[in-house]
Amino acid sequence: MKVYDIPGFPSPLRIRVVLAEKGLTSQVEFINIDLPAAEHKQPAFLAMNPAGTVPVLELDDGFYLSECTAITEYLDNLDGNPTLTGTTPKEKGVIHMMQKRADDQLIDAIGIYFHHATDGLGDGLKPYKSPEWADRTVWGEMHRDKAIKGMKYFDSVLKTQPYVAGDQFSMADITVWAGLIFAGYAQIKVPQACTALIAWNAKVGERPSVKNPA
């Protein structure tokens, strides 16, 4: 298998943690995509993923799988022993519910703020920013506030249970963790009052897969 990504970026980190959790890192070839140079917006990459986002997983049969949730489902179920996406219908439902909330309230909100209300990754990507987002300050502040609200929501969740979707570490935890990494890049601070979220983040940071992703 091949993974097209860029080291250290939030969504690629999500899949690299999944690979480490599943013991699959050695089975993957990583191919670097130059995001600041907008390589992911060029025809060769768009042929693999029309959305123009990383990561992309190329399977051994040449099929390209994109979107972190889909890639995680695939990798987690390769060995018939899913540990990150649930085993019972309820577990799967709750994990996917929290995964969607983590994407919407953290990763996506922070991404909009980072790419449209700050300099983002630089001039190379400016031609690909949506022209209707002309008032970058208002748009960005709205999504920064949404991300902070999301942090407060997950703090409330983690006050009552050890992990985002319940008693077990799951892909929803990986997404929230990556969201907080992204928030750091975008200089959005976690509110000090979010003590449960801060403690959870420290705990997750000690997992071997998080401390040493590929």
Across the major sheet, the strand order is: 2-1-3-4
Helix and strand content put the structural class at alpha+beta
Number-wise, the strands total: 4
Instruction: Please write the string of helix (H) and strand (E) elements.
Output: EHEHEEHHHHHH
Our measurement of the CA-to-CA distance between the termini, rounded to an integer number of angstroms, reads 14 Å
Can you tell me the overall shape?
A: globular
General description of the model:
With 214 residues, the protein is α+β, with helices and mostly antiparallel strands. It folds into two domains: 2-77, 3-Layer(aba) Sandwich (Glutaredoxin), CATH 3.40.30; 89-207, Up-down Bundle (Glutathione S-transferase Yfyf (Class Pi), Chain A, domain 2), CATH 1.20.1050. The protein is built from eight helices and four strands. The protein has helices at residues 10-21, 43-46, 68-77, 89-117, 136-158, 171-185, 195-204, 208-211; strands at 2-5, 29-32, 56-58, 64-66. Strands 2-1-3-4 form a four-stranded mixed β-sheet, covered by helices on one side. A hairpin with a 5-residue loop joins strand 3 and strand 4. The chain is globular. The mean pLDDT is 92.
